Design the sequence.
């Protein structure tokens, strides 16, 4: 993210990311229908976002409205009131940490749509700092791969990994389990 | 369709490899014994014993005389509650560690925690299914679990373990796995001890069969295979078929078993295991087994197959960007069947199916 004082008094701008649905090094602000909230026009020089000659090459000589594909990612995005970022998962797994490795951990991945279990290796750097204490053999995490739509309508691929924060075990749960075990014990008798 | 064994034919079929093991034994005249259960690639989500009986055209309700749950680990109990339900007239033998407060508390506690614990969940279903039933027997060292009379003589099934000391140690280990109040739930993971595992000795004249389950060796009096060898009331004679214990691992190797309880060149079968980075048997394990017998077989060799192609394209692209490769968890996909036609003195005839084969073929690097 980069804060710039762009034309039209734009507030927070989001730099385009490289990727399958993003623009490589474009200087223009994408032309979008009004409901996207992305303004048309050129980024001001003080945004320091890109090379202006590239921008000229891609600008319509008649209207000065950028002639760019709608697939081009916006460089400047304005949050649209009422729109919130959303995540569209393509695949979701429940991960179970099987063992720790030098650089991270190995996990069994249970497909949340019922597909075959998979195995994968993860580096510690893939885990958010605040989750590091939760990484241990037997820990569970959610791992989703999909798309993330920003508040301005930009879509990018995203991989989200979050460790489960399970509530601490209460004594009453253990007491209940103990009582059930005793009842089960009396029901398990040899013929 | 596979032909079922003849009435006078003894059969031992071992399922594996990958993540799971199950053994089926035909005691003669249509009577079967089932040890443990696993799921495999042969039919999605169908326990191996039920799939096999279906292939043979047999009704498990009338064919099976005994189902043994040798121990509680995930790779031995997948689908066991369905097997017990289908084998509705069979006696069900459980490790004597099961009907103990320490073990049951572990099961009921983990059933309440929001963590994925498939082995415990399966055992919880099984124990609740068996509650108040009159089908149960508890297996411990030297206990006779089944006698099946045939025209060729009695077929007897004995438990060789757990010993009293092993049971005591297993209960202590269960207690240590119980969470404390205030602790955050976590999976049990892969418990290291198999002390309460039930190994079987089957007298099937003119031969004997030794099924090693996951019983390990501790080189300590009263525990593991040493306890089996120390017993004066257990297995008599020598076995010509050996289901190698604990996927062929070094920790389950006891030279005395090969010397005292097995014929000179037994048929030895192993179900390999692959879970995380643990792969059994290791090459040195294979070499050791081959040093004992030339008739060694395995239910396959688990291989990691890449999963990328079957994932959505956007997922594939993201994984590629991350430099990450995902693999399928190896599923059981092979089995070894050994049959002995009684009265013909022909010894074992071994056939392999799926990815199963001779150990020397599956592990050529150890030759």
Sequence:
């Amino acid at each position: 993210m980069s804060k710039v004082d762009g034309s039209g008094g734009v507030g927070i701008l989001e730099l385009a990311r490289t990727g399958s649905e993003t623009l490589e090094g474009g200087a223009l602000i994408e032309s979008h229908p009004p409901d996207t909230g992305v303004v048309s026009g050129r980024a001001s020089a003080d945004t320091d976002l890109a090379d202006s000659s590239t921008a000229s090459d891609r600008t319509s000589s008649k209207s000065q409205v950028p002639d760019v594909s709608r697939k081009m990612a916006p460089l400047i995005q304005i949050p649209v009131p009422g729109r919130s970022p959303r995540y569209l998962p393509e695949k979701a797994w429940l991960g179970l940490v099987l063992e720790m490795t030098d650089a991270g951990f190995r996990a069994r991945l249970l497909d949340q749509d019922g597909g075959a279990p998979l195995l994968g290796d993860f580096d510690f750097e893939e885990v958010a700092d605040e989750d590091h204490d939760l990484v241990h053999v037997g820990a569970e995490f959610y791992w989703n791969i999909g798309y993330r739509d920003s508040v301005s309508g930009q879509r990018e691929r995203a991989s989200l990994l979050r460790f489960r924060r399970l509530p601490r075990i209460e004594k009453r749960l253990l007491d209940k389990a103990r009582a059930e075990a005793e009842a089960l014990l009396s029901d398990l008798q040899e013929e | 369709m596979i032909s079922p064994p003849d009435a006078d034919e003894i059969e031992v079929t071992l399922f594996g490899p990958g993540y799971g093991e199950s053994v089926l034994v035909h005691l003669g005249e249509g009577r079967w014994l089932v040890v443990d259960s696993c799921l495999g690639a042969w039919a999605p989500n169908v326990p191996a014993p039920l799939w096999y009986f279906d292939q043979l055209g047999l009704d498990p309700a009338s064919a099976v005389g005994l189902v043994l749950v040798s121990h509680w680990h995930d790779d031995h109990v997948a689908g066991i509650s369905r097997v017990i339900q289908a084998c509705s007239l069979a006696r069900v033998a459980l490790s004597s560690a099961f009907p103990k407060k320490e073990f049951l508390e572990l099961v009921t506690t983990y059933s309440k925690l929001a963590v994925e614990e498939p082995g415990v969940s399966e055992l919880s279903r099984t124990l609740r299914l068996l509650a108040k039933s009159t089908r149960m027997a508890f297996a411990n060292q030297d206990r006779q679990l089944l006698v099946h009379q045939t025209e060729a003589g009695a077929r007897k099934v004995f438990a060789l373990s757990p010993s009293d000391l092993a049971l005591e140690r297993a209960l202590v280990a269960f207690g240590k796995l119980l969470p404390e109040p205030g602790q955050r739930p976590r999976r049990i993971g892969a418990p290291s001890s198999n002390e309460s595992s039930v190994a079987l000795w089957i007298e099937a004249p003119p031969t004997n069969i030794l099924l090693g389950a996951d019983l390990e060796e501790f080189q300590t009096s009263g525990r593991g295979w040493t306890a089996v060898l120390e017993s004066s009331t257990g297995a008599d004679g020598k076995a010509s078929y050996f289901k190698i214990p604990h996927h062929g691992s070094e920790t389950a190797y006891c030279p005395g078993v090969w010397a005292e309880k097995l014929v000179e060149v037994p048929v030895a079968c192993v179900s390999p295991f692959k879970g995380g980075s643990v792969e059994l048997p290791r090459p040195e394990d294979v070499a050791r087994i081959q040093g004992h017998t030339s008739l060694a077989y395995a239910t396959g060799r688990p291989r990691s197959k890449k999963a990328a192609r079957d994932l959505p394209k956007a997922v594939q692209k993201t994984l590629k960007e991350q430099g990450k490769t995902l693999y399928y968890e190896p599923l059981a996909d092979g089995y070894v069947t050994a049959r002995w036609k009684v009265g013909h003195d022909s010894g074992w005839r071994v056939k392999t199916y799926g990815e199963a084969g001779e150990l020397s073929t599956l592990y050529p690097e150890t030759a």
Remarks:
- The longest strand of chain A covers residues 86-100.
- Chain A has a mean pLDDT of 68.
